[in-house]
Amino acid sequence: MNFLITPVIHPLIQILITLLLCSGILKVGKIFNNKFFKNYDYLFLNLSISAILISQILFISFIFGIFEYVVIILSYLLIILGILNFDLFKDTNVLIKSLLNNKNSFFKYIVIISFLSFIIISLGPPSMSDALDYHYGVPLYLLNYSFLPNQDIWLHGSLFGYGELMSAIGLSLKTDNFFTFFQILSLILFFEFLVKKEKDQNRLLFVLFFIISAPVILFLISGPKPLLFPQLLTTVALYLLIKEKKFDQKNLLLIGIFLLGAAQFKLSFILSGSVVGLFLLIKAFKFHKQSILNLILLTLFIFLPKIHYNLNQILEFELINIFTTLPNDFLENLSNFKDNNFIYPINLFIPSSLGAITTILGFQILLLFFIKKISREFKLILVITLLTIFIHLVFGQQTSRIYFEFLLWIGIGFCFLEKINFKNKFFTYALLPQLSLVVLISIYFATNTFPSLISNEYRDKFMEKNSFEYSGIKWANNQIPSNLPVISELRSHSFLTNEFIPYEDIKKLQETKNYIEYLRLKNPEFLITKKKDLKDHFLKECIGNIYKTSQNFTESTRNPFNRGDKYKIYIYHFNYDKLNYCTNLNNL
């Protein structure tokens, strides 16, 4: 039985578990910070350092083959700490009071409605295809089978970072909204951090609106894709590097933890982290040269386990294998991915359709042209941002979900402008049209999501409309005995009850001897696909007759403008006993 499709606990209990886990994480961070960083008692810092430490422990346990045991121990330990010290929202009244103390009641309502909507959306069931593929698929596979197939078997699965391992904490307790809520909580506590550091309410309100008026934020808060949290880590690191006047061993180390933690959660943050990290090394060389050794040791502690894992996955070493085991063709395919059909950089700001409205950053960046006087600090942030964007042009993805990090950087840059820019509220009012659109969309999504938090029956109905391939895989699970491995050409692997062997058909990258050997090891008896015609399939001689064909299902997605397409699920017999001669790979 798959608890994502057939929940074993009530949605409200899932929410309670999520809150307790987050409270426990905050407590661990508070204990750690009180011991090592006494002058930095902020909830965001507590949450961040705790998450980075826990995820590092989880990865090391994964290498030693005890992942599922460590996850269970950590999960219940966090629950206990959360119960004993349920201070999840303690001190957030600083944020609430500051935001609601604004004389303009309209602004108050926008803030309240926005964050309530964001929280409800984050607590909903999983829906996005990437989440249901490897963001949840990887931790569930580890919890169920105690290992991961290598990159030849599951290309997208090899993209996993420590963020996916963190998701296992909630999944082990049968709750599926933990990491999604964790990320929106990190955003809330990020603003709480700024409230404590910045005293000008008008400027703070502008920064808040500047950030949450980006339509892509609705994508970032609606799933467990580990992007928003590491983006906030690099943003706080950059903010502290610009804000602090003096640097010592502790604050240099703290900034290093944030940057390395971001790259730890998702590999792509090595690009942005390296630029800010170079700035960090300059500060360390200037103020505290001995800290450079500490930063090197910290880097080794963070990355050596990952390097060790990568080197044990490959046959021939290349320099890129220090960071990833994936083939260059697959990485090139990822770098060419775009959120919508327009060319770069138009795709960052203009949606190619109504269904792509949450794939853009928006136009708030144009306000930079109306600034009368840019401070030295803001100029430095802009230089660092432009340099990092250039590096992303060469090595990274040109998508709004990635570029939201740079919007965050520019957002905190406004904290270093003169107050005169914000006294007439022109900047803030200029954001209202775009912000209103985001608020309206978030209300729509939150309204649709809220019933799924009340009962499992409403949850099921929500997932039928919103969760990618939910209905199709729910049907397929009822057709095949759950103890039989299957080859799956679907995306939402985490919904499958059976042990699955993914076939992703990306530039024929899986057509290898390793893939055939894995099939021989697992002996799958069925292949599940949306394709009726498999005459060009590289395993066609092993694929038997159709076992079952489903009725038509409607493609499910949160965005109503992307619905309407129909698909069927085909289940084929698979003759694994013919693997010795059904492909020509055996002759290589």
Task: Briefly characterize the structure.
The chain is mainly alpha-helical. The protein has helices at residues 11-36, 43-63, 67-84, 93-100, 105-122, 129-135, 137-145, 162-172, 178-197, 201-212, 217-220, 228-243, 249-265, 269-287, 291-311, 328-335, 346-349, 376-395, 400-413, 420-423, 426-430, 432-449, 456-466, 470-477, 513-522, and strands spanning 486-488, 500-502, 526-529, 543-549, 553-554, 566-567, 570-574.
List the helices and strands and how they pair.
Layout (H helix, E strand, L loop, with lengths): L10 H26 L6 H21 L3 H18 L8 H8 L4 H18 L6 H7 L1 H9 L16 H11 L5 H20 L3 H12 L4 H4 L7 H16 L5 H17 L3 H19 L3 H21 L16 H8 L10 H4 L26 H20 L4 H14 L6 H4 L2 H5 L1 H18 L6 H11 L3 H8 L8 E3 L11 E3 L10 H10 L3 E4 L13 E7 L3 E2 L11 E2 L2 E5 L14
Parallel strand pairs: 1-2, 1-3
Antiparallel strand pairs: 3-7, 4-7, 5-6
Helix pairs in contact: 1-2, 1-3, 1-9, 2-3, 2-8, 2-9, 2-13, 2-15, 3-8, 4-9, 5-9, 5-22, 7-8, 9-12, 10-19, 12-13, 12-14, 12-19, 13-14, 13-15, 14-18, 18-19
Describe this structure in words.
There is one protein chain. The chain has 2 domains: 11-448, no CATH class; 468-587, no CATH class. Helix content is 56%, strand content 4%. The chain contains 25 helices and 7 strands. It has helices at residues 11-36, 43-63, 67-84, 93-100, 105-122, 129-135, 137-145, 162-172, 178-197, 201-212, 217-220, 228-243, 249-265, 269-287, 291-311, 328-335, 346-349, 376-395, 400-413, 420-423, 426-430, 432-449, 456-466, 470-477, 513-522; strands at 486-488, 500-502, 526-529, 543-549, 553-554, 566-567, 570-574. The strands form 2 sheets. It has a 5-stranded mixed β-sheet, with no helix packed on it. Strands 5-6 form a two-stranded antiparallel sheet.
